[in-house]
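We were asked to recover a plausible sequence for a given structure. The inputs and outputs are reproduced exactly as logged, with field labels preserved.

PROBLEM: sequence recovery
POSITIONS: 174
GIVEN STRUCTURE:
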């Protein structure tokens, strides 16, 4: 069965690779850019003066717009998850290729758990716009704080390990 699937997808390897690399770079840069240039300055101002009545509405606006902006990131990531295994099959990779094993370890051990939590906090139970619309402002504040700490921890990791994955895929140093 594996040989059959490999034979079916192999002729499309370069197209699959194009979709994979494009989606991977879109995933890395969409979140990193939105975070670094859109959300981070507002959140820093809020953390310096958390009771400022003028910064809180700006913070809320920025957080809610960020959740809309990361929709792109959350479209790109599933494309990466589908095209990755297809490329793996098409190229005939097998376990034991060090650069690929490290890449898979980062994706499975770091990126998938981060994205599952991020999907929840941005679009499902933690969506700030919907929480605000429900009128539960205590939960809104909790989720803003939780999402901010989540981003403080995960965004630098995604930026660093995302670039490491690009290096591994292009240079294959190990």
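RECOVERED SEQUENCE:
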């Amino acid at each position: 069965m594996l040989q059959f699937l490999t034979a079916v997808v192999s002729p499309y390897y370069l197209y699959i690779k194009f979709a994979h690399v494009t989606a991977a770079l879109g995933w890395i840069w969409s979140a990193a850019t939105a975070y670094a240039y859109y959300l981070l300055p507002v959140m820093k101002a809020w953390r310096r003066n958390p009771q400022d009545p003028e910064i809180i509405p700006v913070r809320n606006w920025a957080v809610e717009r960020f959740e809309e902006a990361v929709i792109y990131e959350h479209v790109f990531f599933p494309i990466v998850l589908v095209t990755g295994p297809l490329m793996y099959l098409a190229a005939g990779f097998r376990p034991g290729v060090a650069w690929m094993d490290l890449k898979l370890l980062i994706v499975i051990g770091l990126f998938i758990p981060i994205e599952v939590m991020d999907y929840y906090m941005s679009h499902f139970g933690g969506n700030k716009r919907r929480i605000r619309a429900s009128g539960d402002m205590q939960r809104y504040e909790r989720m803003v704080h939780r999402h901010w700490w989540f981003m403080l921890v995960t965004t630098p990791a995604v930026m660093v390990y995302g670039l490491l994955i690009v290096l591994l895929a292009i240079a294959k140093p190990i």
